[in-house]
Amino acid sequence: MTRAHMLWGLFAIQALCTGYFALDVLLDVFGTGTALDDIDTGTGLTDHDVVEALVTLALVLGLAFTGSELLRLLRRQTRMADQLKVASGAFADLLDTRFSEWGLTDAERDIAILAIKGYAIADMAELRATKLGTVKAQCAALYRKAGVSGRLELLSLFLDDLIAEELIPARAEPT
């Protein structure tokens, strides 16, 4: 069961309880002579009836607020998941565009991706089954072609492009 299903289930239980208390208050107010709790069967409104009506009003208000917040949060979660999907695709497209602009070789592209992922030079050499010196030379060529001095500047080029604009335009969310 997902978290959303649990939240909606709890919301439904809260709605049932609210309905029960609202019905009890209505039966008390309109004097049918039977109350759901079988305690106050008198003919007039008592202090108990007033308190019960206030509690029911609070439950109704709480239910309305909880429902609107639950809808807002679920919409936000869906929007964030959509943005993450777009960001993943946008990042891959951005990498490809930049690598082409810089004229990177296939080996330099591989090194760039590994550098962006945070791999150490020794790990890159092991993964690519090449010598340490070869990887260092490819890193130097990559940084020179990209116009940066190191791995952090390389990564910041891509981050600046990705966070410069919203990937999915923001929709007005109800308050």
Task: Offer a few descriptive terms.
Arc Repressor Mutant, subunit A, mainly alpha, 6 helices, 175 residues, single chain
Helix and strand layout, with pairings?
Blueprint: H1 3-29, H2 47-102, H3 106-117, H4 121-128, H5 132-146, H6 151-163
Distance between the termini: 28 Å
How much β-strand is present in the residues? under 5%
Overall average residue pLDDT: 83
Classify the helix fraction into a percent range. over 70%
* pLDDT < 50 stretches: none
In total, the number of domains comes to 2
Main beta-sheet strand count, sense and barrel state: none
- Envelope shape: rod-shaped
User: Which structural class fits the helix and strand makeup?
Assistant: mainly alpha
Work out the helix count.
6
Compute the number of strand runs.
0
- Rg value: 31 Å
SSE topology string? HHHHHH
Task: Describe, in plain words, how this protein is organized in 3D.
- The protein is mainly α and 175 residues long.
- It has 2 domains: 83 residues; 73 residues, Arc Repressor Mutant, subunit A, CATH 1.10.10.
- The chain contains 6 helices and no strands.
- It is rod-shaped and about 95 Å long.
- The relative contact order is 0.08.
Summarize the structure.
The protein is mainly α. 75% of the residues lie in helices and 0% in strands. It is rod-shaped and about 95 Å long.
